[in-house]
Amino acid sequence: MYSAAAIFAFALLRSVRGQQIGTYTAEDHPVLTVQQCSAGGSCTTQSKSVVLDSNWRWLHSTTGYTNCYTGNQWDATLCPDVDTCTANCALDGADYSGTYGISTSGNALTLNFVTHGANTNVGSRVYLLDDENTYHLFNMKNQEFTFDVDVSNLPCGLNGALYFVQMDGDGGKARFPTNAAGAAYGTGYCDTQCPQDLKFIDGQANMLNWTGTSANSGTGFYGTCCNEMDVWEANSLSAAFTPHVCSGITGQTRCSGTACGEGDERYDGVCDKDGCDFNSWRMGDETFYGPSMTVDTTSKFSVVTQFLTSDNTTTGDLVEIRRIYVQNGQVIQNSATDFPGIAAYNSITDDFCNAQKTLFGDTNSFETRGGLAEMGDAFEAGMVLVMSIWDDYAVNMLWLDSDYPTDGDPCQPGISRGPCATTSGVPATVEAESGISVVYSNIKFGPIGSTFA
């Protein structure tokens, strides 16, 4: 166990306003309907909306329209130091469709990958709002979550992701006085990778030691950590669902140094970056998911995820995560593990995770950080729904859809994760392709057995 002082180098917050709101573009959250279901299958439609993550937004001076951040660097005049930058810079509203390729229609959300406007935008990340200033918080214990997805336009190297993270419901606005924007402008993101590419963390500019890593992004001194449940990470060739947990923190927490788990310190950080993944291809069934396979990714299908507890209540320990698919009226049970020396698991349990890690020779950081019980505690505290589309500048998404690590023997269990070539997924290549998108629709949630027939 690390001491708080060793893990989190929190800076004292000064009485300045920061992460303020710009007025150049009106913020109009796209409306998205969802359904909350009750036992027996009766569902009520609710009108919600989505909000774009703050990291994609235009960040400019509070007194004009000079960029605080251009390309992958901060403006030296507006941002000579953290406090000055925090006070000088404002987040502006978003042109969701024209700039970011984000649109809604009824219960459907479409995310286009590359959008060419005045500037070229790549990828996006949005959150489900309860109201204009508050994220919807989910407790999925003893509940199920269902959505339809169309991944037919997602090739190798892309990730259409739907997942939960333990963000603050108000985006951190109450905890951090320098965050004036809050959930209304998509602030407060965190996950188990403890990302250091966010321009603002805890309401302060993350410009200390900022280093550009691609044309539009970089990394700062701090990262932002929290529990994460990846309900869906997929393209048309491969898919995985994965719980990740953290130890010693509750909710969104800023990290630095070893606690962020970067590079060679991956397993020394506070969060489990590997998670306990169930990827049908990686678990030995190479005919289950893909074009014209059991789950046919050339057309839309439903994804059902059930979160079972030890006592069948919303307060019991989380003990199992089950996956079911529905396509063309057919209910399809999840594939089972198909390797010698391991039972035929078709869901995620702590026993499955331990057996999988042993079979693959992977570090079991999921167990050491609390396993499924920790994931359940995060849900009970409330988690935010995230939907995104992205490519991977680190390893070209090979961890999802190809052989990874690339120097491993693909005949060894756990190395092959999908049919894509190890040369695929290069961002410059996939970003030059046209027509890449993902559509999430028909979101339903409620007690086990209530969201699908």
Automatic annotation (TrEMBL):
<protein>
    <recommendedName>
        <fullName>Glucanase</fullName>
        <ecNumber>3.2.1.-</ecNumber>
    </recommendedName>
</protein>
<keyword id="KW-0378">Hydrolase</keyword>
<dbReference type="InterPro" id="IPR037019">
    <property type="entry name" value="Glyco_hydro_7_sf"/>
</dbReference>
<comment type="similarity">
    <text>Belongs to the glycosyl hydrolase 7 (cellulase C) family.</text>
</comment>
<dbReference type="GO" id="GO:0030245">
    <property type="term" value="P:cellulose catabolic process"/>
</dbReference>
<dbReference type="GO" id="GO:0016162">
    <property type="term" value="F:cellulose 1,4-beta-cellobiosidase activity"/>
</dbReference>
<keyword id="KW-0732">Signal</keyword>
<dbReference type="InterPro" id="IPR013320">
    <property type="entry name" value="ConA-like_dom_sf"/>
</dbReference>
<dbReference type="Pfam" id="PF00840">
    <property type="entry name" value="Glyco_hydro_7"/>
</dbReference>
<keyword id="KW-0326">Glycosidase</keyword>
<keyword id="KW-0119">Carbohydrate metabolism</keyword>
<keyword id="KW-0136">Cellulose degradation</keyword>
<dbReference type="InterPro" id="IPR001722">
    <property type="entry name" value="Glyco_hydro_7"/>
</dbReference>
<keyword id="KW-0624">Polysaccharide degradation</keyword>
<feature type="signal peptide">
    <location>
        <begin position="1"/>
        <end position="18"/>
    </location>
</feature>
